[in-house]
Design brief:
By secondary structure, the protein is α+β, with helices and mostly antiparallel strands. It has helices at 49-56, 59-65, 86-100; strands spanning 3-6, 22-25, 28-34, 73-80, 108-110, 121-128. It is globular and about 40 Å long.
């Protein structure tokens, strides 16, 4: 099986984080946890869960680079701090996947901290091509 590293140019560079945005193995695409970071590497929406949750869904650009799209997402794993952010995240996710017509399997975990104290949400995805 061929392994393809996905590093889109329209999303932030991941070299400082020592990981790839995604890996494609055959028809499966595994998107690493995405945070609210703009293409220049700056945190978006510091302290604003709504703005950060919107930015995190640059997952769509990562999937597009892998030859897929949000309509092919089977699973999202959501990490947030604190639990009160859940409702905002769910509204944004509902808008995106409601338009598609189906919702992926999606566990949500509350963490005391993410990799950066400025991050309020991180989402990873599994999709097919």
């Amino acid at each position: 099986m061929t392994l393809q590293v996905i590093q889109p140019h329209n999303v932030h560079d991941t070299s400082a984080f020592v990981h790839s945005h995604a890996l494609r193995m055959g028809d499966m695409i595994f998107v690493a946890g995405q945070a609210a970071i703009d293409p220049q590497g700056n945190v978006v929406g510091r302290g604003d869960i709504r703005e950060q949750a919107e930015q995190v869904f640059h997952i769509a650009a990562v999937l597009q680079s892998a030859g897929s799209g949000m309509e092919n997402v089977d699973k999202l794993t959501v990490l947030t701090t604190p639990v009160e952010h859940r409702l905002v995240i769910h509204k944004i996710r509902s808008r995106i996947f409601g338009a598609i017509g189906r919702f992926p399997a999606s566990p949500l975990a509350v963490a005391s901290s993410l990799a950066s104290p400025d991050w309020l949400v991180e989402i990873e995805a599994v999709a097919f091509a």
